[in-house]
Amino acid sequence: MNNQRRNVLKTGSGAALMGILAAAGIIKPGMALADWNKAAFDAKSMADTLKALGAASPADSKDVQVTGPDIAENGAVVPVGVSSTLPNVTMVAILIEKNPNALAASFVLPEGTEANVQTRVKMGQTSNVYALVKSDGKFFMATKEIKVTLGGCGG
Amino acid sequence: MGNPMKIRAANKDGVTEVKVLVSHEMETGQRKDSAGAIVPAWFITELIAKHNDKVVLASEFGPSVSKNPYLAFKFKGGAKGDKIVVSWKDNKGDTRTDEAAIG
Amino acid sequence: MMFQRLLVTLVGGAVLAASAGSALAQDSKVADELAKYRDALADGNPADLLEVKGEGLWSEKRGPKNASLEQCDLGLGPGKLEGAYAQLPKYFKDTNKVMDVESRLVHCMVTLQGFTQADVTKQWYSKPGKESDIEALVTFIGAKSNGMPINVPATHPEEAKMARMGEYIFYRRSGPQDFSCSICHGQEGKRIRLQDLGNLTTKEGAGFAMKTWPSYRVSQGAVWTMQRRLIDCMRQARWPEPNYLADSIVALETYLQKTATGTVMDTPGIER
What we know:
Strand content of chain A: 35-45%
Distance between the termini of chain A: 40 Å
Helix content of chain C: 40-55%
CATH architecture of the domain at 157-271 in chain C: Orthogonal Bundle
Order of helices and strands of chain A: HHHHEEEEEEEEE
Strand order of the largest sheet of chain C: 6-5-7
Radius of gyration of chain A: 18 Å
Number of strands of chain A: 9
Oligomer: heterotrimer
CATH class of the largest domain in chain A: Mainly Beta
Largest sheet of chain A: 6 strands, mixed
Distance between the termini of chain C: 13 Å
CATH topology of the domain at 157-271 in chain C: Cytochrome Bc1 Complex, Chain D, domain 2
Strand content of chain C: 5-15%
Shape of chain C: globular
Shape of chain A: globular
Structural class of chain A: alpha+beta
CATH architecture of the largest domain in chain A: Sandwich
CATH superfamily of the domain at 157-271 in chain C: Cytochrome c-like domain
CATH superfamily of the largest domain in chain A: SoxY domain
Radius of gyration of chain C: 19 Å
Helix content of chain A: 10-25%
CATH class of the domain at 157-271 in chain C: Mainly Alpha
CATH topology of the largest domain in chain A: Immunoglobulin-like
């Protein structure tokens, strides 16, 4: 990476930094921290999280998939993903019902980006994992249970 | 400031697959250190991936994304040698940007 | 790699299942799912980040002498990294000692960069929030042997001596439980809970075990070096824990690498 830019990033902070980043074209104004959906990430229950995401009552859909193992060896690193064959998917999110805050991550998919995102999340215990998808402006959902085996027994 | 990310991008049949591994502690704010004190929350809130100058993925993370976050996604287009630029920002205002060429 | 491990589980499971019924069939189904889980982590192995970090540390000028490690001789000549890990431990004339990758790396950090041994080894493994330079450097050096066969013939008399010492330690029963390495790792198909222990006395078993280290340990959320793996196994054997870089560990490594010789390296791996 360009060293000069790295130094700019290193020394900047707070609001000044956001300005620099925006000027450098690294972030678009509409993507500043202010946009981070605090209400959705702070919500505890599934219902409150969905409400904060503007997706109060998503329909179950067979065209949405939660990808992930049936069992995770370590709840701190659970590979999960969302994929969908629905048209015009503009947003996907991963929710974990039994976590202290259900929402783990959400993704805005610009046109051309496929509805197929994989990541890794922490799970405190065995739980249903939900994939939320926004297609043609409407919300759809699918679920899968992932078991977390007890970790921390050394070895 | 953090350590470098590992970004891999490969184009196959007109679709580019991007895999990003980010170095970050992703502290939940609920863990206690050995002295029993709460380790404050410290996690990436936003991550943006661009192909040349176009945003191809805009992510928002909560603290329950795993330590050293991993992301894999695909977009239509992209050619060998094109730039993929990934930037993140965390709740303390720290940021980092790395880039890789599509292989 | 997962396939092999699965095979051991299935074969072992099948033999035992005939007598013990469905509990073991259940076990092997769980082992199956866990193998899938580890496979899902293999792409984007968190250890890859350490490799990138280690690469940076290798060429960065550091320490009182403000020097990089690029002149470090890991056995193939100064700065030659490709394949170096796969042929360690090895006898080094300049120190008149058989050294493994970690003792040689520490030697370089002391002689080239001017660090004290105590400084360098203080953080020889990572703790939550505290990274270890050694872990990163060893992960980087290990990956430079990827795809190359382990080659520790132990023909130099000092190496042969170390290999014999390692073999002796491997079979010797001691400690409060009268354990030896071979009790856990000397037969096919042995398991603790769901972990296949592997038979480290055969080329296949030792090769399967040695080729993936340094490895990301899912249960620990961290990369472990071979020193850490073996020191922890000494703890499992209820033996007194040796110091980091102790001769007993280098001896065991020499014995295991000699047994594994010919196996192609595949690191950083993913382990339980």
